[in-house]
Amino acid sequence: MGGSESSHGGRKVSFGLDEREQVRVLQGIRLSEDVVNRMKESPQSKRDNQRSPRASDGTAPPSPATEGKPKSPTGIKSAHHLHSVCLWHSHRYEREQALVQEELLRLAKREREAASEALNTALQRERNNTNEERQRAAQLVSNKKLQYVSIQD
């Protein structure tokens, strides 16, 4: 498994991808029970829980599929299930990262266009000011010539 290591707060943490480079593997990270429980839930079971009716005490009623089946003493799902959940989360993360990158590119393009437009406006304003100053200077020279000629007469 290719990966790298980091030292965070005196702890040694290693991370990388599995042999098929599909799942990120972290070692040395402590997860809360809440995080572990969420990782154990499949995306399908989350959708089912969101749609299922609640009992008066706020808990979901047992589903027909789970009634009569003994619950696992440890509550741990199979490694395959955890693998697929991690894979699903990894793909979701990658999709979200791609969307963020696309949005950043759009924003950068808009900023470049706005900056270019502001620069063009400023350049045009400067050209106009330069032309006006040139015309004023020419008018002053012309006026001075007329004054000189009138003095000479």
UniProtKB/TrEMBL annotation:
UniProt feature, compositional bias: Basic and acidic residues: 31-51
Coiled-coil portions: 105-143
Compartments, as annotated in UniProt: Mitochondrion inner membrane
Signal sequence interval, chain numbering: none
Assigned keywords, A-Z: Coiled coil, Disulfide bond, Lipoprotein, Membrane, Mitochondrion, Mitochondrion inner membrane, Myristate
Gene Ontology biological-process annotations: cristae formation; DNA damage response
GO CC terms of this entry: MICOS complex
InterPro entries: MIC19/MIC25 (IPR007964), MIC25 (IPR042860)
UniProt cross-references to Pfam families, sorted A to Z: MIC19_MIC25 (PF05300)
Annotated region described as Disordered, given as residue ranges: 28-78
Membrane topology term: Lipid-anchor
Job description of the protein: Component of the MICOS complex, a large protein complex of the mitochondrial inner membrane that plays crucial roles in the maintenance of crista junctions, inner membrane architecture, and formation of contact sites to the outer membrane.
Similarity-based family: Belongs to the MICOS complex subunit Mic19 family. Metazoan Mic25 subfamily.
Protein name: MIC25 protein
Species annotation: Mesembrinibis cayennensis
Lineage: Eukaryota, Metazoa, Chordata, Craniata, Vertebrata
The gene coding this protein: Chchd6
